[in-house]
Every structure is written in C-alpha cells, then in structure tokens.
Amino acid sequence: MSDRERLARAALTRVMEPGDERGGRWLRECGGAELMRRITSRDGSAEQLGGMTARRLAGYRLRAQTVEPERDLAAVVAAGGRFICPGDREWPTQLDDLGDAGPTGLWVRGRSDLRLWALRSVAVVGARACTPYGAHMATTLGAGLAERGWVVVSGAAFGVDGAAHRGALAAGGATMAVLACGVDVAYPRGHAELIGRMVEQGLVIGELPPGEHPTRTRFILRNRVIAALTRGTVVVEAEYRSGSLVTARNAQRLGRFVMGVPGPATSGLSAGVHELLRGEGVLVTDAAEVAELVGDIGDLAPSRRGPVLPRDQLDPACARVLDALPAHGFVNGREVARAAATSADEALGKLYELHSLGFVEREGEGWRLTKRPTCNDDARRGGS
C-alpha cells in the first residue's frame, strides 16, 4: 500500500465511525485516497457517491477539518505501536469476512504479529459485573487455553474480560485486547496496569486513532471485530441484554464457533448464556472442551465418566447373583439361585467367586453381603 493510501486510511479512522458500511462500500469502490479527496473537495464528486446525503457529507467534512494523519501515525509509533491496513503482511484476512463493515485499518500496540496470533485465537467474553463463579471460570479458561497455545482475545473490560486476560498472562500465555478507544488510552482506568502488561506480553488493538475515547455505540461495534478475528467465542455469564451476546450473534453470523459456560438456573447473569445454549451455542465447561471444538484434528478433550466401583468389574452372572442377595440376613444357595434366575450349581460357583473378592460372607449353608465398616466402627478402632 502506498504512503498516500495509508495516510488516507489513517485519516478516515477519524472521519468515519467503526462499522460504517456505506463508508466501507465507498472505500472499496474508490480507495482511501480518492474517498478523502472527494470528502474534502468541493467539486461535487462526493455528492455523486451512491447513498451520500447532505447531512452525512456535512458530518464527514466537519471531522475532516481537524484530521492530521501524520500526527496520529507519529503518536502511535511513540507509544510503541503501528497502523496496519488491508493488504499488509500483518493484516488478519479473516476480518475481510465483515465485508463493507470491516475496519478501515487497525492501530496496534505490542511486538507480536497480529496475523499469526489471530490464526489460533479464541474470544472469552462476558458480564462486567460478574459473580465470583464467572470470574473463576473466565480465569480458568484463559489460563487453560493459553497453556494449550491459544491466544485469548477479549475487550479488557472489568469482570469476565479482565479475568480471562489475567488467566492467560498468569499462565505465561498470549492474550490480546480489542479496545473501543485509542490504543494509547487506558480504559477502563482501573485496568491501566493490565493493559500495560498486555502491551508488553501481548497485543492491544483498536479501530480508533490515538486519543479517542469510547462511547456506548463503539463498545457494541467493537464486538464484531472480536467475533471476526477469532475462531470461536465463549460467553461466560451474560444477561439477556448483554454486549457479550452481540459478540456471540456476530460470531454465529460469520460462521464461527459459539460456546457458552452454564451457570445456576436461578442466576440472571447466566440467563443470556442459557438462552444461547438453547439455540446454536455449544456447552463447554473447560479449556479442553473449547480446544476440541475450535482446534485441529487430535485436539480432543479427555473422556469424562464417574469413578469405577469394584462391582463394575464383575461379569454379568456375578453381578446378577450379587443383586439376588438380600440387604440383611443369610440365605442359602438355592434361594440365591431362584432370585438370580440361574441354576443352583452356577449360583454356588458365583457365590464362592464373590466370597474370594470380598463381596459376600458365608456361615454354614448361608450367604450374606459383607458388612462394610462404618464411621463409628472406625472410631472404635481408633481410625478417623
């Protein structure tokens, strides 16, 4: 990309808001330099753009009056960052799935390669006012994914976002924050140290130029970048009206994996996640299950099952004879055979086998279940 085009795109990040689809269409048709020329000139060429209105053009021109892209580019370099555009080697091409709503360019801080990191990344998002359970699950997921070589992507907000970032950093892994403000602005202020650590150990990216501050609309629009950038999105705690669900819906629309961590059925903070799981969302409980869904062949979660009990190892005939013994008292072999629907000889053989394994006791011609020691018996023996 030419320097002129790069300067124009840097300028357009101040002129157009993120997600401006009409502006994105004009950018695709004309290119950044030509679009800026039309907006700033008075030759009538801007009015010829399809869908351009007098009000929209007036808003663009008002912003364009104060644009100084050279200063913005110098500011991001001074902050240890850079500005990347579509077509650059570092540009993550999955963002092109957003079409005309895609970013004009991205302001980036951090030493790592954005394109390479985005290829193996997962978003972990959720409620700002999360519960201790939500914070624990986000931290555990962040650490577990980082240990498996995945980049954890979130929005650096309080609650689930911050917990996911911290989990990844604590595991010595990779994490990336997508901001709804300039990459040189620490927002929220309480996460200034966290964002600083991500600049050192990870990446901080955003669509807005240096010094820009977030708005409610920018937070919502930021979520589409998180969804497009990653292979899948995990939602940890979200109410019915939640920006995290906006990220999940964007991910669904883009064909990405959508996952949810279940919570208590009575928790309003999990209501949105449960609604997601009733639809297209996939239930996950740990990083292994997330990696199995979004990863490559062989990224399998361990099989889950309850503990194996001694009687689970018995063959069917032995199990049937064992079930035929009453809970209390002795019975003879013939009664056991009748209850187990087997011959007296087979029942007797199985009873001797069960006796050798410690399941039953014999007294004369009678058989009974072995008494298991109780807590009181242990106490009498001096146990605990």
Protein architecture, described:
The protein is an alpha/beta fold and 384 residues long. The protein contains 17 helices and twelve strands. The protein has helices at residues 3-15, 21-30, 32-40, 54-64, 69-78, 114-119, 132-147, 160-170, 192-201, 216-229, 243-253, 271-278, 287-294, 316-324, 333-340, 344-356, 375-380; strands at 81-84, 106-109, 121-126, 151-154, 175-179, 203-206, 232-236, 257-261, 282-283, 331-332, 360-363, 366-369. The strands form two sheets. It has a nine-stranded mixed beta sheet, with helices on both faces. Helix 2 crosses helix 3 (32-40). The longest helix has 16 residues, at 132-147. The radius of gyration is 31 Å and the shape is elongated. Mean pLDDT is 92; it is low at 373-384.
